[in-house]
Amino acid sequence: MTSTRTQLPRRLADASTGSGVRAGIEGTGRVNIFAAANGLIQIDADAVNRINGIDEGITIATLRPLDRVETDQVVATVKIIPFAVTEASLQRAEAAAQDVIAVRPYRSRNVALVQTSLPGLKPSVSDKTIEVIRNRVESMGSTLTSSRIVSHDMAGITTCLDQARNDGAEIILVVGASATVDRLDEIPVAIENAGGKIDHFGMPVDPGNLLVVAHIGDVPILALPGSARSPRPGGNDLILERIMADIPVSSADIMSMGVGGLMKEIPSRPLPRTTAAPRRERDSQSAPRYAAVILAGGQSRRMGDINKLLIAVDGKPMARHAIEAAQAAGADPVIVVTGHAADEVRDALGADVTYAHNPDFEQGLSTSLRTGISAVPVSCDGAIVALGDMPRIMPAHITRIMQAHDPDEGHVICVPTWNGKRGNPCTLGPSVLR
C-alpha cells in the first residue's frame, strides 16, 4: 500500500513534536517545526537517525541538540522527497518519531553578579561587564537583581556570596579580576568557605576554559572566565543556558563538549589563543631580543625655551639616563625618537644609539610612538617603550618588565603599576609592533 505525499509530512511532523514545539502548515511535501518558547532544543538524535534510515524518501532535518532557539524559529523540517512512500514505511517512521523534537524553555530566575577587583582595573571594565552580563541574563528571561564589586580576596568573596544568597539570588555569577587557574585559587576556596561545593573546574571549550561550576545549597554558582566580559559566545554560555533551562550538567557532560565547540578564527584575523599558543615552536636556544624606543621628540612647552630632556641630571642630559638604563638592561638597538630641536638632541645624547626622526612631532606623542615602533627591527621579539624625561628609571626596572613579557602566555603588552596607576616604561609584543 502506498501513501501519497499530500498527508505524509503532516502525519510524521505531528508524531515528532513534543513539548515546546509546534508543527507548521504543510506545503510541497514539507512541514516545518517551530519553537513555541525561548530555550534549548532537545533532539533524540538516535531516533532521528532511525527514521532517516527507514526510507530514502522520508527525511527529518533538525538543529543540533541543545542549540539555543527563540520562539517561532524553525527547529526542524519534515520532508517527503518523492510523491509517495509505502504506508508501512510511514508507520514505522511515525512509531519511531514519538516526541523526538522538543524545546526546554528557560525558567525565569533572580541572578546576582559578583565581580572582584585588583589595583589597576579600570571602573569602566566593571561597568561594561555589568552591561554584558545583564544582557546575557535578560536574553534568557531572567533578571540581574544585584551586582557587587569586592577586592580579589577570599574573605571578601565569601562575604559577597553570603549576601547574594541572603538577598534571594537563585543563580550567582562571579567574574574575577584574575583568572582562576586551579581549585585552590581565591574564588573556588571562597565558594567552599561559604558552604558550597565545586562540581567541576575547567572545560574543553575555547573561549571558556577557566570556568568553575559549583553550588551552595540549591543555588548554582558559575565562576566565569575573563572572556565572559565580552558579549561573544563562550563556554560559560553553554553551561548557563542549560541551568536556565533546568537541564542538569554533569562533569561528564562538560568533558564531552570539546568537539564542535567555539573554535572559530581565520588566518588573517587570529584570535588571542593563536598568540598564546603559537603555530610554530620558538627557538629555545636564543634569548628574546628587545629593542628600546626612547621618546625624546617633545617640545617641553611648560619649560619655556628650555628643552627639559637636555637638562643636566647628575652630570648628564636627562634623556641620557633612560638610554643608559635600556642599554644596561640589554636592549638592542636603542632607538631615540627625535622631533623638536632634533639636531640639538642628537648632539647632546651621543652617537651610540639609533635615531628616528618624527616630522609630525607637533601633532603629539602618538606620532612619535608610531615613528619609534616603525623603526624596530623585525628580528626583535618585543620593544621597551620609555619616556626620555624619567631619569630615575633603573636597569632593574626595565629587566623586570622584560621578564614579565611573554606572548606565548598571552602577556603581549606589559605595563607597570604603582598604587593602582599605570606608568612607564612598557613592553610591546611583535603582534603589536607589526
Task: Explain what the structure shows.
The chain has 434 residues and is an alpha/beta fold. The chain has 14 helices and 25 strands. It has helices spanning 8-16, 45-52, 87-96, 123-138, 154-166, 186-193, 235-244, 251-255, 272-276, 318-328, 342-349, 365-374, 395-404, 430-433, and strands at 2-4, 21-23, 30-35, 39-43, 58-62, 68-69, 74-80, 84-86, 101-105, 110-117, 143-151, 171-175, 197-201, 212-216, 219-224, 290-296, 312-313, 316-317, 334-338, 354-357, 382-387, 413-414, 417-418, 421-422, 426-428. It has a 6-stranded mixed sheet with strand order 11-10-12-15-14-13, with helices on both faces. A 6-stranded mixed sheet has the order 20-19-16-21-25-22, sandwiched between helices. Strands 2-3-7-5 form a 4-stranded antiparallel sheet. The chain is elongated and about 100 Å long. It starts with a strand and ends with a helix.
Terminal residue distance: 71 Å
Share in helix: 25-40%
Strand content: 25-35%
Average per-residue pLDDT, rounded, comes to 89
Tertiary shape: elongated
Number of strands: 25
Radius of gyration: 30 Å
For the largest beta-sheet, the strand count, sense and barrel status come to: 6 strands, mixed
Contiguous helical run count: 14
Pick out the low-confidence regions. Answer: 265-271, 273-280
Structural category: alpha/beta
Strand order of the largest sheet: 11-10-12-15-14-13
Name some characteristics of this structure.
434 residues; alpha/beta; 6-stranded mixed sheet; 25 strands; 29% helix
Short description:
This protein is of the alpha/beta class and 434 residues long. It is built from 14 helices and 25 strands. A hairpin with a 6-residue loop joins strand 2 and strand 3.
